[in-house]
Amino acid sequence: MKAFAVLLLCVASVLAVPHQRSEFVKVVPWKDAPSLLKGNRIIGGSPAVEAQIPYQVALIAGSADGAWLCGGSLISTEWVLTAAHCVIGATVFNVYMGGLTFSTNEPGVVLDITYTGVAHADFSWETLNNDIGLVRLSAPVELNERIQPVRLPESGTFIEAGQPLTVSGWGRTSDTEGGASTYLNYVNVEAISNEECAAVYGNAVIVDSTLCTRGMTNEGVCSGDSGGPLVSYEYDDIEESYNITARLQGVVSFTAAVGCEAGFPSGFVRVTELLDWISENTGLSL
């Protein structure tokens, strides 16, 4: 609990230029956080290659007060799963699919402009619980090699401490680098137990629907990667055909505001705990 008292939690989203968003999740006084909330980053990441992460989307949400960049995961031809704090307050969403950049100048990138988003009704800005949301595309997207929905986990499965996972987004690669990355990055991390994570952030923040990770050194996520995917990989050797399947295990939610390279855990929504909510709000049979 001592660590909990001195750490700040911030949502991992950041406003796209030119405006700074006014609200961030916090569990200690907000006034201590602003100097630590500049820019966005995937720490220790590597550049992705074409079609490597076909379910990843870039989500630029906007309102009369400004715009902010988040990540998201395509879970069907019509629905994107993201964080609640990415959806709340937004009146329009620019959804970029199929690219390594969030730019229509890149061949193969599809841009959908939509006005339909929903956040979990029980999302808490104070504790970060239920930080999950959905964005519905204006029309079903045409699937191809670069645009594919990610598989959701099976009900009742559980990510154990030590399991390798991969997180992706358009974040910076260090605390000192300025501005959003223009290129999609990914990093390999491993799950830690909720008990270990609660020792840092407290039991009010770390609940059954929370999943935490830690990098091998200081790898992790921070601003701008909110709502993005945390996946596990399944490897099937069927009839001499080696298949790799990604399953969406987490939605990027929060990190410690002491800096992304400090080595503190990153926090995610545990997707298995919210499958019913996803099904109820999308009509998808899971």
Percent range of helical residues: under 10%
Counting helices, strands and paired strands, the structural category is mainly beta
**H/E topology pattern:** HEEEEEEEHEEEEEEHEEEEEH
Distance between the termini: 38 Å
Largest sheet: 8 strands, antiparallel
Unreliable stretches covering 5 or more consecutive residues: 1-8, 13-41
Q: Tell me, what's the shape?
A: globular
Task: Explain what the structure shows.
- This protein is mainly β.
- The protein starts with a helix and ends with a helix.
- The protein has helices at residues 2-6, 84-87, 194-201, 275-282, and strands at 9-11, 14-15, 42-43, 46-47, 56-63, 66-74, 79-82, 92-97, 110-114, 116-119, 133-136, 164-169, 185-192, 210-215, 220-221, 229-238, 241-256, 266-270.
- Strands 2, 5, 6, 7, 8, 9, 10 and 11 form an eight-stranded antiparallel sheet that branches.
- Residues 1-16 form the signal peptide.
- This is Trypsin.
- Belongs to the peptidase S1 family.
- GO terms for molecular function: serine-type endopeptidase activity.
